[in-house]
Design goal:
It is a single chain. This protein is of the alpha+beta class and 195 residues long. The protein has helices at 30-37, 40-47, 58-69, 121-137, 151-159, and strands spanning 5-9, 12-16, 20-24, 77-83, 89-99, 104-111, 141-147, 163-174, 177-187. It has a nine-stranded mixed sheet, with helices on both faces. The longest helix has 17 residues, at 121-137.
Length: 195
Amino acid sequence: MINSTERLDEGYAMFEGRLVRLRALRPEDAEHHLRWRNDPEVVRWAAAGDPCFGPVTAEAVGLGFDTMLRLSPRESAVFTVEDLADGSVVGMVDYRDLDPYAGVATLGVTIGERELWGRGHGSEALRLLVDHLFGAYGLSRLELDTWSGNERAVRAFGKLGFREEGRRRSAVLLEGERYDSVLFGMLREEWAKPA
């Protein structure tokens, strides 16, 4: 279990683990998003090559960023993931479609710096987000999805306590091949509360 700490730094909420810190999105983070969304390998693994994710222009990222910076945390938010070792920006996590009545939200995670893939940064960032949402919002359920070819994400989600709940068969087309879209969920009672 991650022993996370929550603090305010320069007016931005922060959540820290052993490897990463989550902080509020800042306008200067747009340059990282532009680079990641124009990296074919990041687009492949994060979005199964979805052309809506990338490649994109700086203007398109700027428009999207204006919207992301104005998100209401009662409905959705994007956090920047920083590496604790050197403070560098390495990725993002987000939640959306937060429904306080149903007690449900949808999550996402992207580590855009390839040299950190498979080293636990994405898993820890996602765990910090899960702890925040179950702790602060008292939600009943969190969900996320990936594509069946992203075996690293499938394993990581399972290790974090998410359960595979279903597949949309042959719903993802990548480089002429079909993959399943895989839905994962975690219920509040399955959440391992932080120590």
